[in-house]
Write a structure and sequence with these properties.
about 475 residues, alpha+beta, 2 domains, five-stranded mixed sheet, 9 helices
Length: about 475
Amino acid sequence: MGKIAFFDCSAGAAGDMILASLIDAGAPLDAIKAGLLTISAIRGEWDIYTERVWKGTGLIAATKVHVSSIHQHDPLPAPQHDVAQVKGASRESRHDDHDHDNSSHSHSHDHSHDHSHDHSHSHDHEENHDHSYKHHNDDYSHQDQGHHHHHHHHNDHHHEHRNFETISNMIDGSGLSRWVKENSKRVFHCLAEAEASVHGTTMDKVHFHEVGAIDSLVDTIGSVLALELLGVDQVHCSFLPFSKGFVRCLHGIMPVPAPATLRLFHGIPMGPAPNGAVGELVTPTGASLMKALAKTFGQPPPFLPTASGSGAGTKDFPNHANIVRVVIGTLTDPSATVVNAHWTPMPSSTTAAPTDATIENVAVLETNLDDMNPQMKKNRPAMVMSVLCEPHQVGDLSTIIFQETSTLGIRRQSMDRIVLRREKMDIPSQYGIASIKIGYLNGRVVNVQPEYEDCKVNQHSYSSHV
C-alpha cells in the first residue's frame, strides 16, 4: 500500500512550517541534520533546533523550527524611493511574529536589497501599513515613520550570490539519496522559474542571496529528506489560501500574494483565506514545495491516518491557529489516486521545457473515429505517440522526443489513473521459482499475473514454452 502525506495548508504554508510539521509527525531531527551536513558547501554555516509552542485560542501544541546562520547583518542603505529608514541590527530572540522563509526571494540584478518576499503569515495590514515580519527568528518592525531591523542572524550583504545551477550542483555533490536530490532540485527549479518570470529574465540570471539560500536549502531539502525518512511515496495538499492585504518591503508597498508567490500559484487550485486573516499566508518556499511535490490539491484520497504533526509559525491570528498540519497514512482504496474526474493542464512551472522551447496554452480536441481511416494534412496517416511518465521526467523525455522524432510540438497534460492494489509473491513450481503479481479489488483477488522474465528464465532452463 502506498504511504502518503497530506498537508493541510488551509491557514497558509511556509518552508519552516512544513519542515516543522514533518518533524512533529515523527521525522527525526538528528537524521535530518546528518543529511544536511553532507552538503559540504554550506557545512558549518547553519544550525537548526526546535521548540514546543502553543498556537491559537485553543492552545494547539505544535513544533516550531528555528534555523540560524553564522552570517551577521550589515546595515542596509535605505531605498531611494521609500520612506523607510533601515537601521542597524541588534540581537533579540523574542518571537512575536510569523516565520519567514528568508531564503525564497531571489534577484536577477545587482542591488542593495537583502530582503525576502517570503513572509510567513507575518503581517497585520491596516490602512497605515504598520506591520511586522520575521525571518527565522529575525524580528522586523515596519512603520511609515521608520524601518527598524532586529536580526538574530542572516543578511550579510557582501556574500556571494548563488543561482539555480550552483544550488543544483551543491545538492548533487551531497551524500543525499537520489530521490531527495531530484525532488529538492524540482522545488528550487519552481522557485527560480517563478522569480525569472517576475523579473523578466532567465533562470541562469536569477541569484539567491547566500544567507537566504542557506535558509532555503535547510527548509527545502530538510522537508524533502523528512518525507523520505517517513517513508512517504506521495504528497497531497489542501487548497492553498489566497489572502488579501499589503506588504511593505524594499521594493515598496505591494499587494499579496507577492509577485513570485503569485507566479507559483499558476495552475494550483486556490481557496479563501481563513476568516479575519490578512497578510501574506503562503510564502514562495511554501508554494514551491507544494507545487513541486503535491500530486493533487483539495481533498485527500481515501487513506488510513497513522501519524500527524503540526508545524507552527510565529504570528498569532485572532480566529485561527497559525499552523501547517500534516497527516501521514496509507491509501485504502484501489481508486485512491482518482481525485479529479477530468484531466487538468500540467502547470507550466512544475516541469522544465527543453532549452530553446517555449510553453504555450492550447486546447486538446479528441474524438473516436470508427468508420474511416484518419488522415492528416497531405494525406499522411494520423499517428499519436503517448508517453506515460512521472511528472519530474517530462522535461527529459520531451527532449528525447524532439531529438528522435520529426515533431515540432508536444502536448502535455496531467491526469489520474485507477490502480489496483497489488502484491508481489514468489511461488515455487516444477520449473523453478517465479514471481507473480496479485491485483485486489475491494479486498478480492481479481488478477494474477506471473513475471514474464522469470517465466522466460525457467523456460530456457527446461526447454519449455512460455
